Amino acid sequence: MSNPVDIKIAHINKNENTSKSINKDLVHEVFQRYINDKLKSFYRLQQDWVNRAYKNFNDFDTYLILMYLMNKVYVNYSDRFHYMSMNAFYSQDKVGIEKINLIEISKDLNIPKETVRRKINYLQTNDIIIRSGKSIFLNSKGLEIQKPMKTIENMSGLLAKLSIYLSAEDWFGKALEKEQIKKFITEHFTVSWEYWYRFQIPYLVRHRTQFGDLESWNVWGSIGLVQIRDLIASIENDVTRKPETYGDFYLATLKHKSKRGINASSISDISAIPRATVIRKLKSLEKNKHILRNKKLEYSIGNNREHMKSIGENYKKSQRAFSEYCTTMFNLMKFSKFSI
How far apart are CA 278 and CA 280, in angstroms? Predict the structure, then answer.
């Protein structure tokens, strides 16, 4: 069965016959065969992107709200069948979003309305956005903060690597090279980044909802990544322990006894979150049994069953969503009027 057609970009398909489109379920199945390599590359991209996002304001919620506003611009362009290259988009003095209110932002991001109000006021005071009635404009400063040069580089490398795995399947065709993908994203930037944000914003909102704030999630994630990397290293040295699904991998992660943990100073260095904030978040996470501390003051994933079950559901949902994002990008690059 072919994938549902997104009516907002349906007009860019070269052919009415959508049977040529790559199927997201097949992509997901292939990714599960290469869990180790795929997850290592995905988390490297994700952690780098999140940490650099935090550095802009030393605050995740402000950046998440700015992402949300930017994506409104991308969606508005798609609705009007208007697509721009990266150079053209960032050469603008400002871009606007009409008729947006704080309640809408609060509801979509699951951030309290008063918090949204404070963050919007901060962005306005720092000359990143301009408010005019119910409209919001992002000026050149606001646009520059969001310019994703490093992320495009990392993403192009990841998509190229994943395309090699997919090229073993008849339905996919030839693998795509990193420079091809990078050129595609920069030339068709607004539609490419709309789909990155379609994946990324719900991903962040799910984890913010689960942990209460994204700083706690990032601290927990830094601990989890140490355990995951240690597990992957042990699996690569033992071919008899290869997980076959994301669910299998998650269970293996929970059961895995890592040889080492990570301390507060290392988490702070990796995440760019101040050490005092990291320690405060660690105390809260430890109190709720989301993490464990050893005699060396190193932390590992905890044993709160209800929390770990919830994280497992988020984990599988995120991997499914990432497969869908990759499928969309490969379909755009292979079967749209923009095709490489």
Answer: 5
Q: What is the mean pLDDT of the chain?
A: 88
- Size (the chain), residues: 340
DSSP 8-state secondary structure symbol assigned to residue 3: P
CA separation for the pair 65, 88 (Å, rounded): 23
Q: Are 88 and 177 in contact (CB under 8 A)?
A: no
Angstrom distance (rounded) from CA 20 to CA 30: 18
> In whole angstroms, what is the distance from residue 121 CA to residue 119 CA?
5
Confidence at residue 12, expressed as pLDDT on a 0 to 100 scale: 60
Which residues have C-beta within 8 Å of that of residue 82, sequence separation ≥ 6? 190
CA 108/CA 1 separation, integer angstroms: 31
Separation of alpha carbons 261 and 242, rounded Å: 23
**Whole-structure pTM over 0.85, yes or no?**
yes
Query: Which two structure tokens, joined as six digits, stand for 331?
Result: 């379909």
Q: What is the DSSP string of 213-267?
A: SHHHHHHHHHHHHHHHHHHHHHHHT-GGG---SHHHHHHHHHH---S--B-HHHH
SS3 content of the chain, % helix, strand, coil (to 5): 70, 5, 25
Q: Give residue for tokens 């949300």.
A: 68
CB 84 within 8 A of CB 190: yes
In the block, tokens 């770990």 appear at 308
Largest CA distance in the chain: 63
**C-alpha span between 250 and 256 (Å, rounded):** 10
Residue 13 DSSP class: B
Whose structure tokens read 């990078």? 182
Residue type, 54: Y
pLDDT of residue 62: 95
Report domain extents, the chain: 18-59+146-332
Q: Which of 100-139 are b and which e, b meaning 16 or more Cβ less than 10 Å from the residue's Cβ? A: bebeebbeebebeeebbeebbebbeeeebbeeeeeebbbe
More confident position, 302 or 201 = 201
DSSP label of 23: P
Residue holding tokens 């690597």?
161
